[in-house]
Design goal:
The chain has a single domain, classed as Beta Barrel (Porin). It has a 14-stranded antiparallel beta barrel with strand order 1-2-3-4-5-8-9-12-13-14-15-16-17-18. It has 357 residues and is an all-beta fold. It contains 2 helices and 18 strands. The longest helix has 5 residues. 35% of the residues are buried. The two termini are 35 Å apart. The N terminus is likely disordered. Strand 17 and strand 18 form a beta hairpin.
């Protein structure tokens, strides 16, 4: 799993095969507000933000040899609260809380069907300390705490039923940023430290009396994010390149080879002012490259993905924002021995308010 909280919201796997590395690329794509982009939105005033988002995902896997189709559908609800507090000149603090509730279901298109369902909640808390220098540089140190309560992924088939019981997981990781805020163009870099931990999964089924214990890897790859925002004749252009070093960790295949490959994520966003105070219309395009290195690592999170986001910020009367997002993924670069085709699309909507004091 991962995220800007990204890491935290992975789409459920389509079977109860051995647990794969969690990296949550899909979750990253559902929002254009990455950690890097948020460092340029901090400002100097006291502020409070409240937001709610809903995401719908519809995926399918088609076997090229048999023609069998498995559908994977999920609903994700994200609640967000954040505040920025200036302590003294040149020194600020930021606190953010997010909670994600998810329901996912996968089933075959033909009879007899195998159905897999899960409900889970994932939370994160972020605390940031920001120091401004006289030369226009800002230094940020962030702490990101993840909390995944225990949850169950259950399956039913005509002659067999069972479940995977995932243990609770709590962990802390750090990130660091340097930004140049002075001048017309703002730029910086942000580094997210890797996190590679395991948790216990207890697997049981109706044919065996004794559960089997397995390890599930919770993996957040290291990321180096390069970003900049520059003024245009109309509005501003934001560009971000994330270099993701995933090949060094996570689950391994039987030959101890990595399941994941290094990848990149590119975001281009244009903000058009609407004339009423700081009101604007924002449009963002995001592309995530292929991230699997082995057939066991192929899933919705590791295939190439493209997303489009549109958001209206209105501050003429009330400081509110509303946005829509669309995600699309299609992978035909499957390994010959895997011989399957992946399709994924998603829709998202968000609504929130941002108060400056």
């Amino acid at each position: 799993m991962h995220s800007r909280f990204a890491p935290v919201w992975a789409v459920a796997m389509l079977s109860l095969a051995s647990p794969l590395t969690a990296h949550a690329t899909v979750a990253d794509m559902l929002s254009d507000r990455t950690l890097a982009r948020q460092t340029l939105e901090v400002g100097n005033n006291r502020r409070v933000e409240l937001g709610q988002a809903l995401y719908l995902l519809d995926g399918s896997i088609r076997s090229q040899s048999t023609g069998h189709i498995t559908y994977d559908r999920s609903v994700h609800s994200l609640t967000r609260a954040a505040t920025l507090v200036p302590f003294q000149a040149g020194f600020r603090g930021k606190l953010l809380l997010e909670s994600l509730n998810s329901y996912s279901k996968s089933e075959g298109a033909e009879l007899p069907r195998r159905i897999v369902e899960s409900k889970k909640q994932e939370s994160q808390a972020r605390a940031e300390l920001i120091l401004s220098s006289a030369m226009g540089l800002e230094y940020l140190v962030g702490f990101q705490a993840f909390s995944y309560p225990a949850y169950t992924k259950a399956f039913q088939a005509p002659a067999l039923s069972g479940d995977d019981r995932y243990a609770a997981f709590q962990k802390l990781r750090n990130y660091f940023a340097i930004t140049q805020q002075a001048g017309a163009m703002q730029a910086g870099l942000l580094y997210e430290a890797p996190l590679d931990e395991t948790r216990t999964v207890e697997r049981s089924n109706s044919l065996e009396s004794t559960p089997t214990k397995l390890d599930d890897t919770v993996y957040f790859p290291a990321r180096l994010n390069l970003f900049a925002r520059t003024p245009l004749a109309l509005g501003h252009l934001y560009a971000e390149l994330s270099l993701i070093e995933a090949s060094g960790g996570g689950d391994r295949n039987s030959l101890q080879g990595t399941l994941l490959e290094d990848s990149f994520r590119l975001q281009l966003a244009w903000s058009l002012p609407l004339g009423a105070k700081e009101s604007s219309l924002e449009t963002a395009l995001i592309y995530q490259s292929m991230a699997y290195a082995d057939r066991q690592g192929v899933d919705f999170d590791t295939m190439p993905l493209t997303a489009v986001h549109s958001k209206l910020r209105w501050e003429a009367a009330l400081p509110v924002y509303a946005g829509l997002s669309y995600l699309r993924g299609h992978d035909t670069q499957s390994f010959s021995e895997f011989n399957a085709s992946y399709q994924l699309w998603g829709l998202g909507a968000e609504l929130g308010t941002l108060w400056n004091f």
